[in-house]
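Lab channel / #folding
Pinned by the channel admin:
"Please post every new chain as: sequence first, then the structure tokens as a reply. Keep commentary short and put observations after the output so the thread stays searchable."

First post following the new format, from NK:
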Amino acid sequence: MWSTDIPLNPHYVAAPFKHLPARHSNLVTDEEVVGFENKAEKLIAYLIRGTNELDVIPIVGMGGQGKTTIARKLYNNDIIVSRFDVRAWCIISQTYSRRELLKEIFSQVTGSKDKEDEVGKLADRLRKSLMGKRYLIVLDDMWDCMAWDDLRLSFPDVGMRSRIVVTTRLEEVGKQVKYHTDPYSLPFLTTEESCQLLQKKVFQKEDCPPELQYVSQAVAEKCKGLPLVVVLVAGIIKKRKMEESWWNEVKYALFDYLDSECEEYSLATMQLSFDNLPDCLKPCLLYMGMFSEDARIPASKLISLWIAEGFVENTESGRLMEEEAEGYLMDLISSNVVIVSKKGYNGKIKCCQVHDVVHHFCLEKGREEKFMLAVKGQYIQSQPLDWKGSRVSFSFSEELSKFASLVSKTQKPFHQHLRSLIRTDGEKSIDMIPFCQISELRLLKVLDLSSYYVEFLWLATFKPLIHLKYLAVRAGDFYFDPGSHLPHIETLIVKNSPYVWLPVSFLQMEKLRHAHFGWAVFDKQGLFEGSSKLENLRILKKIEKFPIDRADVLSRRCPNLQQLHIEFDGHSADSFCLTLENLTQLQILRVSFERHHIIVSGLQLPSNLNKLVLKGIHIESVIPFIAGLPSLEYLQLQDVCFPQSEEWCLGDITFHKLKLLKLVQLGISRWDASEESFPLLETLVIKMCGHLEEIPLSFADIPSLKQIKLIGSWKESLEDSAVRIKEEIKEIEGCDRIHLVKELTDWEAYSNLSQLCLY
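Reply from TO:
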């Protein structure tokens, strides 16, 4: 996800950081916008010229016509970025929460999250934060004017040429929200533009072969000028892109929909895409309807849910279920029905989402086939009680309680046929009544209520759910009853405040693959005695107070771990050697220490480790061990100590594969490193290193370096050194390949906001 880079004061950030883009977490895609130059000139003029007063620019077009894509290109355009002091992007959608919209805009404008729940106060704080600034707000996908009425008073007009862009499918909405500028109706693509986009999506960086030019033109004509239809058709064709007969087959299939209205045509094309998916991918795609519209879904969560639902087939190749599911996701992305919204440092998919037309198709198809039901306010009074499907999701906080209450009043079972129950948005405290009813759902396999907060929760509450494979909850106190365990559980996520005490019965959940806690502590006696193993466990997160001298127990109890987040209890030793080399599958390791700055005399880690986070140790003696890890691509050093001096001198040490280096709260003032120390480095992040004076100028000679990110308080000389590196590369290479990002910490953003409110 791109970080938010939002200076609260237009004069706060020194040049050249002053005009850096406020990076919103828009889709991380290489979307082709054919003909954008022709549309952009007029739209940019609307945003930077014209009246000094606040203006609203509506962009009107039907679903799949490219409103959001055009707005996104404008939002990130260098001319626009340099014009406005602050920017924010907010998705409205058909169902929305005014409070959540205000919080989202406020967070992007100030760089700080406001926990205020009272809507009126939130609206007033947002208005105050925008006073005195030239701002750009994008309100994407507005369905009616009620949303505009809920937000408009928070957008002050102080004569600074601030602008609001509204994208909508409805011309009437565009007319009603406009101020000075008439709605811009997005034109359809010409046949030539459609053909150009189609060929780019099918052949990527290759040229379309001459023998397919004519048929590609013919297919493009059938796409009715809708970019989404072109993209969906490209996803179908590229599976057999070199076969002219396949192009013709798709073209003739499109003939069946020629008489459809354009809105229906997008859905009809989506049906064609769906029909051409392998059978194993169809339920995976429909499952996207279980999430709210425009939701950015973590890939790891989606994969765990697919596995729990039984969508992922066992293979004879020996691949793990997670690897097989990741292949499913990549196939859906390749078919252009799922969009990448966030990538990791290594290019892997971290979050994904679907276009709202695709989401609508999943909802309708899911209801039609009794596959799933997404409960929204309008369905609570009627459809759920008579619905016989196996999956239900709820979009807002009140709906599950209303749903349960309605069922209780009618004295009907609380959907005992349900297999999956998910709450998708928000955080709200509830009582125990829904959980009591949920325990009656004896066939339930998936239960995700992590958006709900309860004060107390017992694992025994879910003991009747003997088929449960996926459980995600949020609680102030979670009690892991001794003797209680879930025999078929594969994913257990407990977002909790105090520690969860893990008794020996935790080790009896033999099918467990993914365990993630807010904080968890093992019962030492149960951990060190007996022979129970969690051989299927791949991910174990947030284990606290683990004895340093018993690290070997981890490899005995959980031998196939791939990810481990652990804090060691260091009170029993002044120094130690961290030995985890027997965890031969380990790829991601986060280690911290309860007693900070303990001396690590050595590291014995598995050779395939590619991500390492170390916090709270004397680091100098183990740097050679870390650099020697042959697969290490990501290294974060946080609050580590260099005891000999305030200087980190790498000398001839080389991190051969490292792509991302993150330094957090280091006390060093000087850093000596050559370009040979990090030959493949792509991203450097420096966070809250208040004493560090500069980045070594030798970083300008690292050919792979793409980004330098500075977060929190730092010396002006550090910022100047980043600028010098950027300028030197530009002078030598003639290209501007270094992206500089400056961010405020939450505390700094809040502090600046508090000062603003004082005036």
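NK: The chain has a mean pLDDT of 82.
TO: also worth noting, The chain has five domains: 17-185, 191-275, 279-362, 372-537, 645-759.
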